[in-house]
Amino acid sequence: MSLPDHKTKIVCTIGPASRSREVLVRMIRAGMNVARLNLSHGTFDEHRENIRNVRAAAEDIGLPITILLDLPGPKIRIGDLAEEPMELRKGETVTLTPAPVQGDPSRIPVDFEQFPQLVSGGSTIFLSDGFLQLRVDEIAGTDVRATVVIGGPLLSRKGMSLVGGGGILAVSAVTDRDLECIEFGLAEGLDTFSISFIERAEDILKAREYAARSGKSIRVIAKIERQEALANLDEILRESDGVMIARGDLGVQTPIEEVPAVQKRIIQKANILGRPAITATQMLMSMTDNIRPTRAEVTDVANAILDGTDAVMLSEETSIGKYPVETVAMMAKIARSTEEKRASVGAGCGPLDYFRHGKGREMITVNDVVSLNVIEALDALGIRFVLTPTRSGSTPRNISRFKPEAWILAFTRNPSTLKFLAFSYGVCPFLIRSEKEYWHGAILDSIRNLGLIGPGERVVLTEGVSPGREGTDSLIILTVD
Ligand SMILES: Nc1ncnc2c1ncn2[C@@H]1O[C@H](COP(=O)(O)OP(=O)(O)OP(=O)(O)O)[C@@H](O)[C@H]1O
Ligand SMILES: CC(=O)C(=O)O
Ligand SMILES: [K+]
Ligand SMILES: [Mg+2]
């Protein structure tokens, strides 16, 4: 086998443009690692078919593809439009109504009954991540009449937000609908969910406890897209399995000019804790319609990688865009080129200084020390592969956070661990079938059989030597015979 030529993971939102098995196969070949299904759009039946197609495509290629279910969360959205895109023109009057009508240019349904109570004359309404803007003129019964201030094309089920942070319901971030979606996912054999508009760590606990009632354990990615989540970032990160910088809503809910610094801060903190970070939204947005991205977009993807993101995400580009496969290929190409230059442009090894010389020294754990020693050994000896037997995935994640040039080959018996490692930079996971395959002799054999490493090559292998203890507490350097 051969490994991909880039280490950054690619998450693709699946929609009408990409849900066929044929397109999915081409996207996997181009570098997709994770298929994201946004449950804010489409029906359960449609997503069931998406899941079937992703699994079939993954089987066609023989690579594990992870499915991420993105929960709707407490976001107010417009309903369905009769024809889309529907053009809203500056100066026109539109009526917004909570009635379940099919939208047309004069009447737009809003998927929230109390919507008319949330606005008053003079309120500003942003639609579609803030691309369109309306000003409320008057409220007549349940009809909200507004004038288009900034026009443009509108699609079904686009989000809405109101000036002053409105547009998110004042209920728990994990809504009843989200719990139904978790139930749907579990019934489909999936266990990885992203929570939208998370506020605090308890939101994650609520989702976990709900799954635990049916005896299931889930992996939770916290989507950071509102002010409250930034205020509670540390506790959210600790409770989460991974984090997404959801720049679409974040750029409406918080000052847009703060997004770049917030992105860097979230990635740094996630790296320190060994939580995979996904940078999302508008990364190659112009490729929704064009075969080539803008220079600014290419630079954005590269900078997210230099910031230390584990994964980059595509939304419109792959769900409704004209060039889903070409966009993934472009992402992969930018990743490969940027990763090669990480050290030479001074981006270095992520949180290394934090543990060696900074605050991290005070609370360093045995697992941290092992991962630091692995990095030391890789650098000093120019080693190309780290082999990590793992149950929870924490050992490969702790090494991955330093974004080494070497590949991290992870061996696990746990299919859920394998699937979740799809989010971690530079980790290639393998499923092993029995307890005795955790033994290092067996791992070396399987690597030799894959043809990845030839005789005479040195590798690093991590081990847990203390019986019954979780985690890894030693590393050995072996020469393949
Ligand atoms: N399953 C789908 N069916 C139809 N259109 C979809 C689907 N998934 C995504 N889209 C389209 O792609 C756009 C971008 O996807 P994205 O997942 O970023 O959604 P979003 O509406 O911005 O919501 P969120 O904030 O949850 O990401 C959506 O707004 C929608 O127009
Ligand atoms: C991905 C997402 O939810 C956002 O960017 O808002
Ligand atoms: K969502
Ligand atoms: Mg969002």
From TrEMBL:
UniProt-listed Gene3D superfamilies: Phosphoenolpyruvate-binding domains (3.20.20.60), PK beta-barrel domain-like (2.40.33.10), Pyruvate kinase, C-terminal domain (3.40.1380.20)
Keywords: ATP-binding, Glycolysis, Kinase, Magnesium, Metal-binding, Nucleotide-binding, Pyruvate, Transferase
EC annotation from Swiss-Prot or TrEMBL: 2.7.1.40
Pfam families named among the record's database cross-references: PK, PK_C
Molecular function terms, GO-annotated: ATP binding; kinase activity; magnesium ion binding; potassium ion binding; pyruvate kinase activity
Family indicated by similarity: Belongs to the pyruvate kinase family.
UniProt protein name: Pyruvate kinase
Organism: Methanoculleus oceani
Lineage of origin: Archaea, Methanobacteriati, Methanobacteriota, Stenosarchaea group, Methanomicrobia
